[in-house]
Amino acid sequence: MTQIAGADWLARDELQRLLKALSADGEEARIAGGAVRNALLAEPVSDIDIATTNLPQETVRRVEAAGFKAVPTGVEHGTITVIAGGKPYEVTTLRADVETDGRRAKVRFGRDWKEDAQRRDFTINALYAEADGTVVDLVGGLADIETRRLRFIGDAEDRIREDYLRILRFFRFFAWYGTGRPDAEGVKACVRLKDGLDQLSAERVWSELKKLLSAPDPSRALLWMRQAAGVLTRVLPESEKWGIDAIHPLIRAELELGWTPDPLLRLVAIVPADPERMVGLAERLKLSNADADRLSQWAKTAPVISTMPEDAFARLLYRGDRRGFIDRLRLALASARARGIEDNKALIEAGGFSRLLAYAEQWRKPEFPIRGRDLAGLGVEDGPRMGELLRELENQWVDGGFSQDRGALLDRAATMLRN
């Protein structure tokens, strides 16, 4: 009998009291899905979901009687979010899909645990655990956990037609938990049904892509998405003629240099530095303003040569986008390190990029010490002439290494006005 009784989170008093309240008087409640999977794989557990035979209204009544807060976040699909001990738990009534259109499903509530398990996507996501930690496996998920095999429940095409997002989820979960080659039937089903991705909202597509790109090493999944399934270019056509070769050295550099995995940097590694196309990509996937701006700035930032002196680089940083230069340098450093295995020149380049990257990461933009009111004190009227004079003074200040103070700049302004 497989157990997760040693999991610290399972022993939480509020979770045990919640499970007890939902399991009284002939009803049942079990931990479901990701928390069980991650506990068995010795992976971190964040969200804890609960499946129950209670109907939503009864779930609300029971949890409130137990002193917890109930929030009807998805009551039409049977989901109540319970706040217990300051933590949210999604409690969902057992259900079956009665109608699907590839994006959303109509469900009916039930009491059959196997039917509930069979409506889920992958075997490793359809495991349950009792309050005492006993794992309940109704679809063969434990065997797949043992081999880290990602496999659709039942017929792969049937599962995908229920929700075409499962194509992206297949590669996302493979990136996080799979080993070796992905399940052949799953890949074939993704290839055959990839046109269904066009039905999905941009927000859902980007959410899955971002989670995939956040995996410790998404390179194998991206390779299969591109070469074997044609899925990557379906949702990210910008990668079609660019390739994903840069992702491998980037992942290696992250591991060896201690960089935090960055899904946006991994994205720019597999798309061209074309400002116009990056604007289109951001609009199509409905990226946040911050993410869209970062993509745009990276694409507009010119590459830096590894031998550039730091004073010259400081001028570029001042006039450009610091984040864009950092992204450029990280990719250049990762590429040079990879080539440096067989090329001494590339090793020297890597040293230069590393130096400039360290400089950019600690660099803070200095503040130009002159304002329009300073020039007004010298008799300059507000208008185009003042703007021209400010720009000229700022350019001289930047070109001089930011060394002139306010007094020296005012003296320079007075001289310029006299001349």
UniProtKB/TrEMBL annotation:
One MF annotation (Gene Ontology) recorded for this entry: metal ion binding
Pfam families registered for this protein in UniProt: PolyA_pol, PolyA_pol_RNAbd
Tagged with keyword Repeat: no
Keyword terms: Magnesium, Metal-binding, Nucleotide-binding, Nucleotidyltransferase, RNA-binding, Transferase, tRNA processing
Cofactor requirements of the protein: Mg(2+)
Gene3D superfamilies (UniProt xref): Beta Polymerase, domain 2 (3.30.460.10), cca-adding enzyme, domain 2 (1.10.3090.10)
Domain Poly A polymerase head: from-to ranges: 29-151
An annotated GO BP: tRNA processing
Ranges for domain tRNA nucleotidyltransferase/poly(A) polymerase RNA and SrmB- binding: 187-239
PANTHER family for this protein: CCA TRNA NUCLEOTIDYLTRANSFERASE 1, MITOCHONDRIAL
Family that this chain belongs to: Belongs to the tRNA nucleotidyltransferase/poly(A) polymerase family.
Protein's name according to its UniProt entry: CCA tRNA nucleotidyltransferase
Source species: Allomesorhizobium camelthorni
Source species taxonomy: Bacteria, Pseudomonadati, Pseudomonadota, Alphaproteobacteria, Hyphomicrobiales
